[in-house]
């Protein structure tokens, strides 16, 4: 009974309802349009189930599982902030990881994140406020409020450490799916002594029958993985 309840639930919400819509639409069409809708239905289904999500996400996360990392400077990359001043789930987990690495010590923490428009808060300010609330001394936190992407994260962090004469090994904190690209870009900007403290791992690897039902969460993770692959490709082409 529980399985059928979950199945009904999945039928009524995206992406399952769109998959069914594509299939029904294809049923009433003929020729190329029919096959095109069936193709979209299959691709949407595959990109929405856990095993395919894991196939795509594992290669960019695997190097950072249980990786020990220590250093003198903590750099926390922004992951998004909403107009109401709330951090996105990714950003919140990154800040918590920064707190875990910086608590009880005198490590410098650089929080890096600008804002998408004037109606939004600076992400670095929201990140700093959360760190202070968690117990990090305000004097240990430096804000980069100018960066809007990973390249600018690295560029402006480099400027901060040079202007302030900060020296030491860097602990880079970001989501596991984003770490490979983050490390590549930071090394390009001269951060040779850098280690990865990844958080928010998306890989699971353990499945039940429910993992073969389409999920919006899996689709979101697949989108993030594909974005990272494209980002790494563009970085290496330049």
UniProtKB/TrEMBL annotation:
Task: Report the transmembrane regions from the record.
Answer: 7-29, 35-52
Q: Which GO terms describe its cellular component?
A: plasma membrane
InterPro entries for this protein: Cell_Envelope_Assoc, DUF218, Rossmann-like_a/b/a_fold
List each copy of the DUF218 domain by range. Answer: 72-231
**GO terms (BP aspect):** Gram-negative-bacterium-type cell wall biogenesis; peptidoglycan metabolic process
Q: Which domain of life is it from?
A: Bacteria
Q: Which UniProt keywords apply?
A: Membrane, Transmembrane, Transmembrane helix
Q: Any keyword Transport?
A: no
PANTHER family membership: ENVELOPE BIOGENESIS FACTOR ELYC (PTHR30336:SF4), INNER MEMBRANE PROTEIN, PROBABLE PERMEASE (PTHR30336)
Name-wise, this protein is DUF218 domain-containing protein
Q: Supply the source organism for this entry.
A: Calditerrivibrio nitroreducens (strain DSM 19672 / NBRC 101217 / Yu37-1)
